[in-house]
């Protein structure tokens, strides 16, 4: 079994970190710091709780006021890099959290700090309260960052303003009106870094959930210009494509389904136990007189606690099918217990989707 990520915050990690802090602050007390980190509640804390706890303890052990403490943290970064402390680097997300928790009233110091810190550990979460409070002031800064020489700063310009960044506070103003974001994304659409371009695609995908027409217009404007923008718009369209948006289906070459048929759709495990797999198969018939580009998906209708069904779409393939052909497809879907989904025993449904059009729906039973 994999080691929980929260255990990255180990005694060995803090011992190494304390040694670095001690070189920058003579009165820093590593023993007291460690004692306060590993308090009685430590074992019950999850990853982000341990991160926030570290932020608070560190605040009490750094000398001076907030600007002086930030300066000290920034001075430590080159040494921490050189010593390669930590396994992944994101252990130091408490640097960004320090700015988020204590720097909201000191705009200039905090913005300068995030520009530096994000080159060490991402500030995508930390910047969001600043966007909410200083929206008009920050937009020009994000535009400036979008042409920064460092890819991590450029990524922050996009990732930090995603309207629906997972595990982060939403940005209501951008959910309502994302147009201030668009010039930033325009600057980044041909960025040499895939790391940055992926953020642009994810930002557009966020926007699509509240403002699909804006994304459709952007996709039409960018598509076919460069290989980089083609990848971005396709990845950015994933939510709308799963919703069966026909404007985008047509744009990406997925045509009408008049000559497409689904036959012999069968669920081989009509009773599925939690922890096992649903097995199903069907035949895809392309009766067209020419090759057809087909996006093939299936819809899983999960039973919710209130008795209603919630549909989630899974992609099978996107490819060309030759004319007058029959293709047999076998698939399975796991019902293994995972932390991100709670299963409820009872009636579920399964459907086959071709180019956004849902075909036959079958029933099956999930049991404990």
Summarize the structure.
This protein has 16 helices and eight strands. The chain has helices at 11-24, 30-37, 47-61, 66-83, 93-102, 107-117, 128-133, 135-145, 151-159, 172-176, 182-188, 194-208, 212-222, 227-236, 238-242, 246-251, and strands at residues 260-267, 271-273, 277-286, 292-303, 309-321, 325-334, 346-354, 357-367. Strand 7 (346-354) and strand 8 (357-367) form a beta hairpin.
Q: If you had to describe this structure to a student in words, what would you say it looks like?
A:
Helix 4 (66-83) packs parallel to helix 6 (107-117), helix 9 packs parallel to helix 12 and helix 12 runs parallel beside helix 14 (227-236). The strands form two sheets. Strands 2-8-7-4-5 form a five-stranded mixed sheet, with no helix packed on it. It has a three-stranded antiparallel sheet with strand order 1-3-6, with no helix packed on it. Helix content is 44%, strand content 21%. The chain has 368 residues and is α+β, with helices and mostly antiparallel strands. The protein has 16 helices and eight strands. The protein has helices at residues 11-24, 30-37, 47-61, 66-83, 93-102, 107-117, 128-133, 135-145, 151-159, 172-176, 182-188, 194-208, 212-222, 227-236, 238-242, 246-251, and strands at 260-267, 271-273, 277-286, 292-303, 309-321, 325-334, 346-354, 357-367.
